[in-house]
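Quick sanity check, Putative beta-lysine N-acetyltransferase:
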Amino acid sequence: MLNTRGEVSSSSLISVDERNKRLVVNGYTQGTKPSLFSRELIDLAITKELEKIWLWALPRDVPEFLRCGFHIEGNIFCYNYEEFAVSLAYYVFKARGLSDKIQTENDIVYTVRTEPIKQSQSLPIGMELKILDETFARQISQVLTKVFVSYPSPVESSQYIRSLMHNGNIFAGAFSQEKLIGLAAAYPDYLFNRCEMTDCATIAEYRGHSLSERLLGILEDEVQKQGSFILYTLARAQSYGMNRVFYKLGYRYQGRLINNCHIAGSFEDMNLWVR
């Protein structure tokens, strides 16, 4: 639970993310005063030499956060879901909030929505898909580090992958001749009834078989067994392929988080898709 009278960094809902030079705030105690809370978050970010604050806010608190210098970047409104549904950003380092790729990224979203959808072909013989357990942690780490030059989380550590699984996150993998060639993951959040679909990666020579789309379908079935969740993802805004995958699966585009994380060698904008 958040402490709005100092020591905010001790809250389990607040993460000092040095890897991505940001402060991540997944929620706060109902009744928190946004003006006071904003000052504490900004002071913490400055002290930790962070560049961005990423805050999930209650809709009713958004106007006051905006008066404190935050900006709306997206939302996960879906059905009657209105918990911490608005994604806000505050840029301690103002240049972090500027992107010169907005028009290109807008064009990608437009194309994703308007191009005809083709039906996926059958998997080639020798390929199979399945849910992964922690015995695959090392292989998961190897795939992610092979596909991405840099990544927002320490996936180079197989122990980190195991810790994700121990915390209830689910991984699915694609295999060719028993070799892990692609994967995706679901991160259920039981506190806020939302689930991030993430960690989509396919080794280059095995692309073209809709593996991410198929793996996400398997994961969605697994997540539904555990409860009712709002599903969302943050897809690289410059990746036509991943944005197309989520559009095909029925997700709606609901915002863009500017320079949100360091992935594939640089800070990138991330599109928010919700279902």
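Posting the structure with no commentary besides this: The chain has two domains: 8-97, 102-274.
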